[in-house]
Specification:
The chain is α+β, with helices and mostly antiparallel strands and 977 residues long. The chain has 26 helices and 36 strands.
């Protein structure tokens, strides 16, 4: 059918199908700013303006827009002339991964068109339909407020960032020349790490993101592209007795149907782990056994998505249902269904008992310490299975290039791991595979697994055609990865003065159907919790257990959030039993500078062994001591800003229906010291004095590419805009294990710094020859090389002479770094709440977060990352939980049933960034992982303070709060009688 649309002021005549969605039509026409996020109109990523009103294009037929004026973000402003909203989004640091940004901009634009002076509440209401998983919305709200002021003709104040004292300081976000004292350094030595450190430079590709330019894996359109769809299991556990694809293959437009009969049965682990992978090799691209509702059964490639969907319905599968188990405790019982009896799988700790991985650590004499303790406190804490909920779904596009090489374009944080695994599963040599990983629209750990790339590649091999396979939002909930549920039992022995003598943490992790991330999950809960309070006797034991639920994946520091929820809730319970202030108890027992950090050798050994089956004795621990600890300063700041001493109720009864409370929790994050960690960087000079920076560390919204650009610019004496960074591409960017954000960023920073120092030396050598002076006498700053006598050369002059002069030479360098960061990140986080005792609803009034995260390269991006972590911590603490029926069918398969925080939900936040001790000028860490860690326990402690009742299970839903109050009243009544 012919449809006439006015798109961004241009009338277009389009040929569309009657049932074609407006979203698909716009993307086909090249309006890539319109994103596919949920398919139900819940997330706002697909927002467009229809006659000036925001509408979700993913649930609107194209024909419904006939005669209307359609506006996408491409029509809001251009690269050379940005709209004030686009400018303020960039300046305020409101652009993170950028996937939701176009929809946010359009909703904000529509608001300002009808209301030029909106209140903060009106802005949050207008943005409530646009979900973001990276930011905490506060900077987005700030950007809208600033744009509104500009459009009203008002002056606006510079962006402010809290410093280490909690005060604010203005930042000029525009380009500025280097200060005279920054123009130092000669003889090839890099200048001090100060010129670019602490400068809130604009995110390097923010303009591209706010103007809707192609930036993500799906932002391309290939001729002859086939559309793939996945048939998944309706059973939690079953054998496929027979599968008939005859009718599906015969359907016109279908090019391939693949089942387990059509591909080799190769065991692998989908998790991105260093080779040789330590995790169980217990998965198959397609298998004759299905182990959870949503498991892979068959995959189809067809001319259109509709034809592929029709083909799925024509596949006939005869299942033999098997007994299923969903509770990890029951999975350990004798006679429980065995999920992995197949002989081909390997690396499983104990397949007979459904244990994917097991780690145990002990020091001192735990039983003797408990026997001599004056007080023993025990508790069990339960954390639910949750979804990472990146707004960008998993998507891959595969095709043959002109050299008959397989290209995999994917939304993945681990491009080199994808290449290695695709090579194993397709039989192609790695040299015949090229993986391109553009900007990732949010990952949070879920995109550390191979989920769609192998099937997409197998379909291209079968059809010789380009193939696109994208998960729907339902697929994300049914067939993707989840953050696992945890059951954590803590037992602590103490003296009456609060001195901890022994700690025991027993962890049961629900691995789901496959154990790819089992090893990091077995380590993470203990590594980043128990070392907070070292004591003479310590026991940690973790079992990661198979069940017939979706497989567990990584999520924001691999279990640290679970261990800290249990431990920090437990510390408040101990303080109550001792009638001691919880902060006093923490200060008495916390980790101090100079003390040994346990668990590091435990984690290393777990990774070094392909099957970590042996318990590690204390004698195997290395003497790794803490050099710097920011906990005292962090806690002091939070205590003061939360007004702790005045507001702390300590279980005292309050009158009235609304009860208020405050809670504080501590956190630490130490990247798991994985073996085979390696990051590399290549820098290359261009004729105009600019540089190409090639790295394989993906950009997922944490600002890593901007930080690395600032580091390179610092080392080369140029501005960040002179550094052209390239996204990961296994054909051109150097090798990177990309194992986790913290370790990889730290290593990549050092690699970039070393490469910049080498290129700097080469530039000075060329300039020395041209100026006829010693290289060690030269300085390089502000893109100019200067000699002591006043002679100077611009970098562009040096570049032209180097590349085209009498002695032409290429100026470039590649450097690698393999050492992990060994300095923990510390945080203290406080929450103030009010609880409605009639409804059970918890309303968060304020969050204070103080983080000691090493040296802060870009404070605007850092604060935004912390706000995003706070939002996720509050969200999973209050409302996020995967729910299943008795057959294992997920009941939360959309963003209406599975609710995450919106702009309307966010409380007041106060963030204080602490600087490191200065010993390592490149002590740069990914602080986004710790930002989430202590929020939930601080929240639970605040609710306990308000009610005098402890909840040990997340999320703190109104139902759970009311149940806890009811049980407390019943217990009090029994005690009274």
């Amino acid at each position: 059918m012919e449809l006439e649309l006015r798109i961004n002021g241009v009338i277009k005549s389009l040929d569309v199908a009657p049932n074609e969605l407006l979203l698909n039509v716009l993307r086909r026409e090249g309006y890539y700013s319109v994103k596919h996020g949920c398919g139900h109109g819940h997330c706002g990523a697909c927002t467009v303006l229809i006659d000036g009103l925001p509408r979700p294009s993913c649930v609107m037929l194209a024909m419904q827009a006939a005669g209307a004026t359609v506006t996408t973000v491409e029509g809001l402003g251009s690269f050379r002339r940005l709209h004030p909203l686009q400018e303020t989004f960039i300046d305020a640091g409101a652009v993170h991964c950028g996937f939701c940004t176009p929809g946010m901009l359009l909703s904000a634009y529509a608001l300002l068109q009808r209301n030029p002076n909106p209140s903060e509440e009106e802005i949050r209401d207008a943005l409530a339909g646009n979900l973001c998983r990276c930011t905490g919305y506060n900077r987005i709200v700030q950007a809208v407020q600033r744009a509104a002021a500009l459009l009203r003709g008002e002056d606006i104040e510079p962006i402010s960032i809290p410093d280490s004292g909690g005060r604010t300081r203005p930042w000029d976000l525009g380009p500025a020349p280097l200060e005279p004292d920054e123009q130092v350094g000669g003889g090839g030595e890099a200048p001090p790490v100060h010129a670019m450190m602490g400068r809130p430079e604009r995110q390097i590709d923010a303009i591209k993101l706010v103007t809707g330019k192609p930036a993500f894996a799906d932002d391309c359109n290939l001729p002859g592209l086939l559309h793939a769809r996945l048939l998944t299991s309706p059973h939690a556990h079953a054998i496929i007795r027979e599968i008939d694809t005859t009718e599906a293959r015969a359907l016109p437009g279908v090019h391939a149907v693949l089942t387990y009969k059509d591909i080799p049965r190769i065991p692998y682990t989908s998790a991105a782990q260093p080779w040789p992978e330590p995790g169980p090799h217990d998965q198959y691209s397609l298998d004759h056994i299905v182990r959870y509702v949503g498991d892979r059964v068959a995959v189809v490639a067809a001319e259109t998505a509709d034809i592929a969907e029709q083909a799925l319905k024509l596949i006939k599968v005869d299942y033999e249902p098997l007994p299923a188990v969903f509770d990890p405790r029951k999975a350990l019982e004798p006679g429980a269904p065995q999920l992995h009896p197949e002989p081909e799988s390997y690396g499983i700790y104990d397949a007979n008992r459904n244990i994917a991985a097991h780690v145990q650590f002990e020091q001192g004499n735990v039983e003797r310490a408990f026997a001599g303790a004056e007080l023993i406190v025990e508790g069990e804490y339960v954390l639910p299975q949750i979804q990472q909920v990146a707004i960008e779904n998993h998507v891959a596009i595969t095709y043959w290039d002109e050299d008959d090489r397989l290209v995999v374009r994917t939304s993945s944080e681990v491009p080199y791991h994808v290449r290695r695994l695709v090579a194993v599963l397709t039989g192609l040599a790695p040299r015949r595979i090229r993986v391109i990983a553009p900007r990732v629209g949010g990952g949070f750990g879920a995109k550390h697994d191979l989920l769609v790339e192998d099937l997409c590649a197998l379909l291209t091999l079968a059809t010789d055609r380009p193939v696109r396979l994208e998960y729907s939002r339902v697929d994300e909930f049914r067939s993707s990865r989840v953050a696992p549920s945890h059951i954590i039992r803590l037992k602590t022995g103490l003296r009456r003065d609060g001195t901890i003598l022994a700690n025991q943490m027993l962890v049961l992790v629900n691995a789901g159907a496959y154990g790819g991330q089992a090893v990091p999950l077995s380590v993470g809960s203990g590594l980043n919790s128990l070392p907070l309070y070292p004591c003479p006797s310590l026991r940690y034991s973790a079992q990661v257990v198979y069940t017939n639920l979706p497989p567990a994946g990584a999520f924001r520091s691999n279990g640290a959030w679970a261990g800290l929820f249990a431990l920090e809730s437990h510390m408040d319970e101990i303080a109550r039993r001792l009638s001691m202030d919880p902060l006093t108890l923490r200060r008495k027992n916390w980790l101090k500078e100079g003390e040994i950090l346990p668990f590091l050798p435990l984690a290393t050994a777990a990774y070094q062994s392909a099957t970590p089956q042996t318990a590690l004795a204390s004698s195997q621990l290395a003497d790794v001591r803490l050099r710097h600890c920011g906990l005292p300063h962090c806690l002091q700041v939070v205590e003061e800003q939360l007004n702790w001493r005045e507001k702390r109720r300590q279980g005292q009864s309050q009158s009235g229906r609304i009860q208020r409370g405050v809670g504080i929790a501590l956190a630490m994050h130490l990247p798991i010291p994985r073996p085979s960690l390696l990051s590399s960087a290549t820098l290359k000079l261009n004729e105009d004095g600019s540089f190409n920076l090639l790295i394989s560390l993906p950009e997922n919204g944490n600002g890593s590419h901007t930080i690395l650009t600032q580091i390179a610019a610092e080392g080369l004496g140029v501005r960040p805009e002179d550094i052209l960074i390239h996204p990961p591409d296994t054909d051109s960017t150097p090798f990177d294990t990309s194992s986790d954000p913290s370790s990889s960023l730290y290593a990549c920073v050092h690699a970039v710094r070393q490469a910049a120092a080498q290129v700097r030396q080469q530039l000075l050598s060329v300039a020395a020859r041209l100026l006829n002076v010693p290289a060690e006498s030269l300085s390089l700053a502000d893109s100019v090389i200067r000699a002591p006598g006043g002679q100077s050369l611009s970098l562009s002059q040096v570049a032209l002479q180097a590349l085209y002069g009498e002695q032409p030479t290429s100026i470039s360098a590649t450097s690698s770094w393999s050492a992990a960061c060994s300095a923990p990140t510390f945080a203290a986080q406080g929450v103030e709440v009010e609880v409605d005792t009639a409804t059970g609803a918890t309303h968060v009034l304020k969050v204070v977060s103080a983080i000691d995260g090493g040296h802060i390269v870009n404070p605007v991006l850092a604060e935004g990352q912390i706000e995003g972590g706070i939002a996720q911590g509050l969200s999973y603490g209050l409302c996020e939980e995967m729910v299943y029926d008795q057959q294992g069918n997920p009941l939360t398969t959309n963003l209406n049933d599975y609710r995450i925080f919106s702009a309307r939900d966010m409380p007041e936040t106060s963030i204080v960034l602490m600087e490191g001790d200065g010993a390592d000028p490149l002590d740069i860490r990914d602080i986004s992982e710790i930002a989430i860690a202590a929020v939930a326990p601080a929240l639970a402690n605040a609710v306990a303070d308000a009610l005098g009742v402890r909840l040990r299970q997340l999320p703190l839903t109104p139902e759970r709060v009311l149940h806890a109050l009811y049980m407390a009243r019943q217990q009090a009544a029994r005690a009274a009688t």
